[in-house]
UniProtKB/TrEMBL annotation:
<dbReference type="InterPro" id="IPR024936">
    <property type="entry name" value="Cyclophilin-type_PPIase"/>
</dbReference>
<dbReference type="GO" id="GO:0003755">
    <property type="term" value="F:peptidyl-prolyl cis-trans isomerase activity"/>
</dbReference>
<comment type="function">
    <text>PPIases accelerate the folding of proteins. It catalyzes the cis-trans isomerization of proline imidic peptide bonds in oligopeptides.</text>
</comment>
<dbReference type="InterPro" id="IPR029000">
    <property type="entry name" value="Cyclophilin-like_dom_sf"/>
</dbReference>
<feature type="domain" description="PPIase cyclophilin-type">
    <location>
        <begin position="6"/>
        <end position="147"/>
    </location>
</feature>
<feature type="region of interest" description="Disordered">
    <location>
        <begin position="56"/>
        <end position="77"/>
    </location>
</feature>
<dbReference type="GO" id="GO:0006457">
    <property type="term" value="P:protein folding"/>
</dbReference>
<keyword id="KW-0413">Isomerase</keyword>
<keyword id="KW-0697">Rotamase</keyword>
<dbReference type="Pfam" id="PF00160">
    <property type="entry name" value="Pro_isomerase"/>
</dbReference>
<protein>
    <recommendedName>
        <fullName>Peptidyl-prolyl cis-trans isomerase</fullName>
        <ecNumber>5.2.1.8</ecNumber>
    </recommendedName>
</protein>
<comment type="similarity">
    <text>Belongs to the cyclophilin-type PPIase family.</text>
</comment>
<dbReference type="InterPro" id="IPR044665">
    <property type="entry name" value="E_coli_cyclophilin_A-like"/>
</dbReference>
<dbReference type="InterPro" id="IPR020892">
    <property type="entry name" value="Cyclophilin-type_PPIase_CS"/>
</dbReference>
<feature type="compositionally biased region" description="Basic and acidic residues">
    <location>
        <begin position="58"/>
        <end position="67"/>
    </location>
</feature>
<dbReference type="InterPro" id="IPR002130">
    <property type="entry name" value="Cyclophilin-type_PPIase_dom"/>
</dbReference>
Length: 147
């Protein structure tokens, strides 16, 4: 398990190494390297998800130190409320450090085909403690800032 300490409280993630071994190993490497220290949930969409792992306060981008990983979204784990998945670009195999917590059931993010449109987003764990904290984060006031 991994504990995320936020200014709203703690969130405990249970990682699924059996179904998402590459993704979990990658996430743990970032944790061990201290990459997530002092990062923010920089993308918060109240009825969709909260995304973090890529920016420090003031929207200062963290530099990725590791190569992107193979997308494991075909592992059968659904993008359901309080599941944790890897963020990525439009390129299916581009996930590196950023992750998101689903705050709703987002079946449209699930793997449907091994195509650019169908790959989906790899779920690799779930929130087992601190769902109330996730709910606080999804409700924070947000603003837009061009990078």
């Amino acid at each position: 398990n991994v504990k995320l300490t936020t200014n709203h409280g703690d969130i405990v993630l249970q990682l699924n190494e059996e179904k998402a071994p590459l993704t979990v190993a990658n996430f743990i490497e970032y944790v061990k390297a201290g990459h997530y220290e002092n990062t923010v949930f920089h993308r918060v969409i109240g009825n969709f998800m909260v995304q973090g792992g890529g920016f420090e306060p003031g929207m200062k981008e963290k530099k990725d130190k590791r190569p992107s990983i193979q997308n494991e979204a075909d592992n059968g784990l659904p993008n359901k409320k309080y599941s944790v998945a890897m963020a990525r670009t439009m390129e299916p195999h581009s996930a590196s450090a950023q992750f998101f917590i689903n705050v709703a059931d987002n079946a449209f993010l699930n793997h449907s085909a091994k195509t650019v449109q169908g790959w989906g987003y790899a779920v690799f764990g779930e929130v087992i403690e601190g769902t109330d904290v996730v709910d606080k984060i999804k409700g924070v006031a947000t603003s837009s800032k061009a990078g």
